[in-house]
Amino acid sequence: MKYQLHLIKDKKLAPLLVQASHTIKKRKNTPVRLMASIISQQLSTKVAAIIFSRFLALFEGKEPSCEQVLNCTNDQLRSIGLSQSKVHYIQNVAEFFIANKITDKQLYAMEPDAIIDLLTQIKGVGKWTVQMLMLFSLGQEDVFAVDDLGIQQAMIRLYKIKYETKKELHTKMLAISIKYRPYSSYACLHLWQWKDQGAI
Q1: pLDDT digits (tens, 9 = 90+) for 88-144
Q2: 94 C-beta neighbours (distance < 10 Å), count
Q3: What is the pLDDT of residues 108-121, one digit of tens each?
Q4: pTM (predicted TM-score)
Q5: How far apart are alpha carbons 198 and 200 in whole angstroms?
Q6: 48 within 8 A of 40, measured Cβ to Cβ
Q7: Which of the residues 91, 162, 163, 183 has the least number of beta carbons within 10 Å of its own beta carbon?
Q8: How many CB atoms lie within 10 A of CB 113?
Q9: CATH of range 30-136; options 1.10.530.10, 1.10.10.10, 3.40.190.10, 1.10.340.30
């Protein structure tokens, strides 16, 4: 694939590219994708998937509209395993998308920085959460999640990064990631895959 021809120039990353190829696609129902990201915060992938399936079960297994989410009581949302703060954050997402009449098509057409500026206005939605949305739902090919713990762990191991502070780690990661552009999202996918396969 085209991105592999670019990323293979990084000799450290190159061995990770032979394991599989990845595809980045646009997905519909952006507010629900954002809610899923909030649900997954500070949880393992497995636990997050279980809670998200319970979330969908509240709506007969279908992805809800923002209005349907707001029609749920706090107790209903708490009953699936969400903290009170996550309940409020999910409701904030629904209210924001309704109030600002945001559509999938609108977000697909926006620049990355503009998407981050728009959606981080929502209380409970930080830069990492928006980056996950951009990478997994909005089809953005050049997202580098410097704050992601998995990416940090993978790059520390792969590039043998030495650091004393988080700021120093971020600076070194960002310097390395320049080589990934404009396919940083794919680099992240391969780094996550490598980590999940037990390389760390």
Answers
A1: 999 999 999 999 999 999 999 999 999 999 999 999 999 999 999 999 999 999 999
A2: 23
A3: 999 999 999 999 99
A4: 0.88
A5: 5
A6: yes
A7: 162
A8: 8
A9: 1.10.340.30
Q: How far is CA 2 from CA 12, 89, 111, 150, in A?
A: 18, 38, 22, 25
In angstroms, the CA 168 to CA 162 distance is 9
pLDDT at 63 (0 to 100):
97
Report d(CA 84, CA 152) in Å as an integer. Answer: 29
2-23+145-199 CATH, one of 3.40.720, 1.10.10, 1.10.1670, 3.40.1130: 1.10.1670
Which tokens sit at 84?
A: 């009170």
Which residue is listed with tokens 């609108």? 106
